[in-house]
Amino acid sequence: MTTRYAALLRGINVGGHKKVPMAELREVLTELGHRDVATYLQSGNAVFTGDSDDEKALAAALERAIEKRFGFGVDCLVRSGAYLSAVADACPFPAASLEGKQLHATFFSEPVDPERLASIDVSAHLPEECRLGDRVLYLYAPNGIGRSKLAEALAKPSLFKGVVATSRNWNTVVKLVELTRD
């Protein structure tokens, strides 16, 4: 069975740290046996076709290959095109009427218990809002994530301890859905 996937790399090419040139990332994915490899932007988004249906194994193999190639570790999440489409379809906010910078998705390595968010008084941050989905947190930040006090509260290291999390703005989510369509 072949599946179209997106690889989401966490924290690369930010502020001159953990530089991973996209051409080399494409080479790494190709060397792992994946096909139809492409990258999107410089911030760690790649798409590929693979034969495995084990997202965790695909992510682990990519993490090992990146560490071998570049000499540093990078957390990676791999998600199928079908999953990304389901995330887009399940968005609890009116994505079509918002600017991409107003809506973000934080993808998690595993399901997150809603109790983790209990320490945050979400109502204190209105009109900003967030909602948990299937291994994803949707964040509506009308003034953008850079000015978002709710995003700041959600970024506390202890909040999602033990879970790999990486965020994308809605424009990127929509593009990844498009690029992973079978």
From TrEMBL:
<dbReference type="InterPro" id="IPR012545">
    <property type="entry name" value="DUF1697"/>
</dbReference>
<dbReference type="Pfam" id="PF08002">
    <property type="entry name" value="DUF1697"/>
</dbReference>
<protein>
    <recommendedName>
        <fullName>DUF1697 domain-containing protein</fullName>
    </recommendedName>
</protein>
